[in-house]
């Protein structure tokens, strides 16, 4: 891979690569998820999780577009089919697994907001949060910001 030096040719190539990545994962979302409102939600989740970068790894070790943790990928529970293969950066499988896990959280907790809390902060924490009255200010700042990025952002 060519080293980025900051020249206009490099910037142009970088922009083309990013646009291609964005188009690729958005096409995968469109192919996997039937409902338009769910497709848009999945895209907002991806942008909140990884800013659309399929190669990103968080400080905690979550990987790929939907920021999947290895332990969750292996044993997701909730009748979610485990992640197929070892490459958590595989865009198609990352989207499939991440969306299936999100839907499992929505089925468990009843709505997108609670599912998003569970997806980001964990189902056990989400259960406690719900029992304590679902007050947004009781969520960790990171989860509050995560919800804001999903539900108060536009996907252009």
Radius of gyration equals 16 Å
* Low-confidence parts: none
Give the amount of beta strand, in percent. under 5%
3D shape? globular
Helix share, percent: 55-70%
Instruction: List how many beta strands DSSP finds.
Output: 0
Order of helices and strands: HHHHHHH
What's the number of helices?
A: 7
Calculate the terminal CA-CA distance, rounded to whole Å.
29 Å
Biggest pleated sheet: none
What's the overall average pLDDT, rounded?
Answer: 89
SS-based structural class? mainly alpha
Question: Which SSEs are present, and which pair or pack?
Answer:
Layout: H1 8-32, H2 36-50, H3 70-74, H4 91-109, H5 112-121, H6 123-131, H7 141-151
Helix pairs in contact: 1-4, 2-7, 4-5, 5-6
């Amino acid at each position: 891979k060519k080293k980025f030096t900051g020249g206009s040719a490099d910037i142009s190539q970088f922009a083309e690569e990013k646009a291609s990545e964005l188009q690729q994962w958005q096409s995968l979302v469109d192919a996997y998820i039937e409902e338009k409102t769910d497709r848009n939600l999945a895209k907002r989740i991806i942008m909140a999780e990884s800013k659309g970068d399929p190669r990103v790894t968080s400080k905690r070790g979550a990987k790929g577009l939907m920021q999947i943790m290895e332990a969750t990928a292996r044993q997701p529970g909730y009748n979610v089919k485990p992640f197929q293969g070892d490459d958590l950066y595989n865009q198609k499988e990352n989207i499939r697994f991440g969306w299936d896990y999100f839907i499992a959280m929505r089925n468990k907790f009843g709505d997108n907001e609670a599912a998003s809390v569970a997806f980001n902060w964990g189902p056990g924490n989400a259960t406690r949060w719900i029992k304590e009255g679902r007050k947004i200010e009781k969520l960790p700042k990171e989860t509050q910001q995560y919800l804001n990025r999903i539900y108060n952002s536009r996907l252009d």
